[in-house]
From TrEMBL:
<keyword id="KW-0328">Glycosyltransferase</keyword>
<feature type="domain" description="Glycosyltransferase 2-like">
    <location>
        <begin position="7"/>
        <end position="171"/>
    </location>
</feature>
<dbReference type="InterPro" id="IPR039528">
    <property type="entry name" value="DPM1-like"/>
</dbReference>
<dbReference type="Pfam" id="PF00535">
    <property type="entry name" value="Glycos_transf_2"/>
</dbReference>
<comment type="similarity">
    <text>Belongs to the glycosyltransferase 2 family.</text>
</comment>
<protein>
    <submittedName>
        <fullName>Polyprenol monophosphomannose synthase</fullName>
    </submittedName>
</protein>
<dbReference type="GO" id="GO:0004582">
    <property type="term" value="F:dolichyl-phosphate beta-D-mannosyltransferase activity"/>
</dbReference>
<dbReference type="GO" id="GO:0016020">
    <property type="term" value="C:membrane"/>
</dbReference>
<keyword id="KW-0808">Transferase</keyword>
<dbReference type="InterPro" id="IPR029044">
    <property type="entry name" value="Nucleotide-diphossugar_trans"/>
</dbReference>
<dbReference type="InterPro" id="IPR001173">
    <property type="entry name" value="Glyco_trans_2-like"/>
</dbReference>
<dbReference type="GO" id="GO:0009247">
    <property type="term" value="P:glycolipid biosynthetic process"/>
</dbReference>
């Protein structure tokens, strides 16, 4: 089985979704591998994954961290694992079906066949394609995307998106250990660093559906990091060699 594409799914208390999302990815016509990065979920998410590994031992992998340490650090852990195992295309995806697994193929095609270095599943490239979010959250998210574009100059309509395909060379050339954000602002910083390095970023429209099962991890601290950290990130990029 061809080993070129790895989907990284960070989890914390996703026992209601984890089996279904794994099986949905493995039903796709494209052969994706999956790495679950679990933050020692007390609900037993990792136990379910270990059971599924008996069936999908050559495609499903699990890394369990000691504690909940932030979305960004979970993805960085996964990125390093993916590079170590020589995957060419590295994906980010949520466990809760807010991202449609079938759209993985569209992201893959953009990077593998259409010249993109980074392909983003975008909620805002064609209007607002969000289902089941309250109006306040839509306004906050959409407003944040405009704010990020204004501050950074980055021509990305959905900079906080978490459904992404990176070519491995992009990850290799981003200094992962210098990433400053650990929450959802991590998504902004990764795209910003790729944009600064002149990689080709392509957004494709998706429909984002809020989770049906489980609990959202969004909180005020995460939002504040995204809003107030962008200015410092932009300033740091002007004066620091870490970028």
């Amino acid at each position: 089985m061809q080993k070129d594409s790895l989907v990284i799914i960070p989890t914390f208390n996703e026992i209601e979704n984890i089996e279904n999302i794994i099986k949905a990815v493995f039903k796709l016509e494209k052969a994706f591998h999956i790495l679950i990065v679990d933050d020692n979920s007390p609900d037993g998410t990792a136990i379910i994954v270990k059971e599924l590994q008996k069936t999908f031992n050559d495609r499903l992998f699990l890394e369990v961290r000691e504690e909940k340490s932030g979305l960004g650090t979970a993805y960085i852990h996964g990125f390093k694992w993916a590079l170590k195992h020589n995957y060419k295309f590295i994906f980010e995806m949520d466990a809760d079906f807010s991202h449609n697994p079938s759209d993985l193929i569209r992201l893959y095609n953009e990077c593998a066949h259409k010249g993109a270095d980074v392909a983003i599943g975008s909620r805002y490239i064609k209007g607002v394609n969000v289902v089941n979010w309250p109006l306040g959250r839509i306004l906050l998210s959409y407003g944040a995307s405009i704010y990020v574009r204004l501050i950074t100059g980055m021509k990305v309509y959905d900079p906080t998106a978490g459904f992404i395909c990176y070519k491995s060379e992009v990850i290799q050339n981003i200094k992962l250990d210098s990433i400053q954000f650990v929450g959802y602002a991590f998504q902004i910083e990764m795209k910003f660093r790729a944009w600064l390095k002149k990689y080709k970023i392509k957004e494709i429209p998706i429909i984002f559906k809020d989770r049906v099962k489980g609990t959202s991890k969004m909180n005020r601290k995460i939002i504040s990091e995204a809003v107030f950290g962008v200015m410092s990130m932009k300033c740091k990029s002007l004066f620091s060699k870490d970028f």
